[in-house]
Amino acid sequence: MYIISACLCGVNCKYSGKNNLNDRCLKLFREGRAVLVCPEQLGGLPTPRNPVELNSAASEVLDGNGKALSNKGEDVTKQFIDGAYETLKIAKELGATKAILKEGSPSCGSNFVYDGTFTGNKIKGKGITALLLENEGITVFSDEDLEVNNSKLVYLNEFDREKAKKRRLFEQGEEEESYGEEYFDLTENLTDMSELPPTVEENVKKLMISLARDLMGFEEIDEIAEATGLSVEEVEEILEEE
């Protein structure tokens, strides 16, 4: 059973009174595999409401050393903490072991949040609810963890590698796999594949596919395409030549 941010299933509960509909989350809900929550509403805040950001890390807010403040200076820390614990209570009552929460939210962000200046600047961190659920052993995915990323030739850094691992974990329902600690940057001196001679370009593509399969453990063609940035057709063509 999943706990899912209600806004991801089309409920108009985000601060602006709108939603962040995600088709994959909606499918889980329609299949009866998820329960919807909105931590801010569970904490007693209205919709719409003023945008809120954290002035310190979520762990410090939970410990009483930080605050959740609106862009008007309202202190809504209590409501955010209350909503987080209400969400945890629901998860425990349902026996939920996984959650899919809205990325970037001061409650639900699991990879990044905004820095408290209301200038749109993102920083690495977690929302209050996401951190509380993780501390209680619940696996937290963000909606962005579920999206296909075709902008990378390979996953070159920790964030992208973790995103790939979480996406595989979500789709396969298996224990998280270890892909090792070394990172391979095939694009350090390469800005455009078209700069390469055709034969070299072909060999680079084959190498990327090999890394995706042998190093990162991807097996399905769409997974390999996602990890390498190649099209499904390109991957199929190269694999057929083997």
Backbone CA Rg = 20 Å
Spatial arrangement of strands, main beta sheet: 2-1-5-8
Helix/sheet category:
alpha/beta
Total helical elements: 9
Question: How would you characterize the largest beta sheet?
Answer: 4 strands, parallel
Structural domain count = 2
* Percentage of residues in strands: 5-15%
From the spread of the alpha carbons, the general shape counts as elongated
Number of strands: 8
Question: Which quaternary structure do these chains form?
Answer: single chain
Q: What is the chain-wise order of helices and strands?
A: EHEHEHEHEEEHEHHHH
N-to-C span? 41 Å
Mean pLDDT: 81
Low-confidence stretches: 149-157, 174-191
Portion of residues in helices? Answer: 25-40%
Primary descriptors:
242 residues; alpha/beta; 2 domains; four-stranded parallel β-sheet; elongated
Can you offer a commentary on this structure?
- This is DUF523 domain-containing protein.
- With 242 residues, this protein is of the alpha/beta class.
- The chain has 2 domains: 2-146, no CATH class; 180-241, no CATH class.
- The protein has helices spanning 23-30, 39-42, 58-62, 77-94, 128-135, 158-172, 198-215, 221-228, 232-241, and strands at 2-5, 34-37, 52-54, 68-70, 98-101, 112-114, 122-124, 139-142.
- The strands form 3 sheets. The chain has a 4-stranded parallel sheet, sandwiched between helices. It has a two-stranded antiparallel sheet with strand order 3-4.
- Strand 1 (2-5), helix 1 and strand 2 (34-37) form a beta-alpha-beta unit.
- Helix 4 packs parallel to helix 5 (128-135), helix 7 (198-215) packs across helix 8 (221-228) and helix 8 packs across helix 9.
- The radius of gyration is 20 Å and the shape is elongated.
- The model is unreliable at 149-157 and 174-191 (pLDDT under 50).
